[in-house]
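Entry for the shared binder. Reason: the reviewer on the internal report wants the predicted structure included alongside the sequence.
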Amino acid sequence: MRSWVWLVVAACAMSPVTTLRAQTAGTDSTAAAALRALGSPGASSTPAAGDSVYTYRWSPVFSNKITADVSKVSMGNDFHVGLMTPWGSIFDFLISNDEANYRTQNRTEQTKVMRLSDLHTFNPFWNGSTSYSDSRVFNRSVALGGGVQDFIINDQQVNLGSTFKRTYWGFRSDMVGSAGAIRSERTFKKDRNIQAGVNGGVAYDIGRRFTWQGRGALRGTNGDSTADTTRFSGLGSSEDSVVTGVRFQVADSIRFNANYTRYSGDRDFTDQARGSLGAQTSGAENVFKEHESRNTRSTSVSMSSQLFSRFMIDVTASHDDQVFDYAVQKTRFSRSVGDDLFGKINYTLPWKTTSIVSFDNSTTLRDLGPQSISSLTDKTKKLGLSMMHQFSKTLSLSLTASTQLQQSFYLKYDANPRDRDQVDTNLDVRLTSQPFKKIAATVGVGYSVSEFINIDASQSRDNRSRELWELRPGFTYTISPRFIIMQSYGLTIEYTDYDFQADQNFLDRNITFTNTFTYHPAKTIDLVFEYGFYLHDTGSYLPDPVTGERLLDVSSKDRRDRTRIRVDYRATKHITFFGENQYSNRQDLTPDNELLNETTDGQVLVGSSGLYDWGAGRTLRFTVARVKRFSPFGAEAEKNYWDARSELAYPF
């Protein structure tokens, strides 16, 4: 972490503005005249006799960030400097060093980055860029038995680029070219690659009602990879894409858009063997050469129309086809074909109620290849409605409702008979009111029901329906500008009913309450007291075998009470001292409210925070606190620690 010292020394050696005078034989020079003609801010308009004044604008910035919490202690140092020259170049240099040490693990992380770039403007239509970067990531962890595991990512790359923009005879055109090379090092392999690409676009307007635009791109790479003593050559990729679209305005209120995208790419690369869950397996022995082929086609058409001031309609239809094919790992093959039709109608009723009606009908094929039995087709149909009415400045009501049908059809039904339907219906109503000047209230009511239906008899034992009821009122009492009370309540009841396994039916209920008091006894003192209550029980709601009447049977209960007390004292406009106490008590109860288990935990936090602003972007923010936790769980290092944050930004 001592590298920040050298960063400070380097920053102090930089001067914000450096002025050079070049002696010339005449009263002006051709270079200075050209600079003034281009309007460069670095060129002086009133040079001394016989001199030309060139101003180089430096903008060095040093920043430091420190973080200490229960899990780790880290520091990051960055030095960034920009240089604007009078001949149209903008240089940018960055060097950074981040380190982290974990308190509860024998683990360290280091990240170092150095980047240098230059952007040069040749004329108003053409610019070019070049950049070099070197990044290094090192992660070391030591197991309890003493085993050391290192993780390394080192990248060095050079990039060149150029952009040209011009308008000819009404055609707006641009072209971008790029080339680069990268050398990468991983824990168990090394890669080298070069790449080049070009893309360009054209757009043309016919009057005010028709616009056409198109874009194309080509990119290619070539490289090799070495894993241990094995070298893989002939790696690389070839990619091309085309995007085109038209926008047509039939009338002032009707607009059409159509877009088409095509992408094709082939890639030879080194991959790693994957486990049963799809995660890559480390080790040089698990590296092999893979070929990937990817093709994408996408088409969309949309229409929007505002028939009159209170009525608007939007409709979009799209088709997508995407294929990933692999030469070695056939199980990674995938093809997705999607068709979607979406529409939305906005209408404002005569009595100022705003409403939105939406519909969506989509079909998606997910083909995972001939070796998979999980390929399926998903179909979704959804209808939604939302309304909002403002009765007065202090009273409003909103409603949101939707119903949706999802169907899954497996392609290999005999081997995987998991065809299923799911029906979801939701309703939410919210009332917002301020009945009195010092009282504001919100009341939310929600209801949702979901039905899960498995088609095949072998899976139907899991068929069920789920109902959820919610009531969430909240109130804010402004007793005075210095004293505010906020209350929120919550009641949720969830019931799951199995069609063929009645003994699996269950009921889940929750009651929550939060009360927060905010008091300002003085301009520099803030007091907050918060109390929260949570009551939860589970059980069943089954019919009586004799009478058939449903009976409530509670199987378990738990209760939690928590409090938070916080004091903030602003000693000066820069420094604030604070203290906070958190307490929580959890009780596991029997249905008869007998205590089974009790757990208490909490923490005490005392510290200070500060903000110094010296202007011109020079700031220092920090927070330092000592934390003492009391809990039956966790290691000792997690119960007594410093929590600190600081950020320093200093432009020179």
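Summary line for the report: The radius of gyration is 33 Å.
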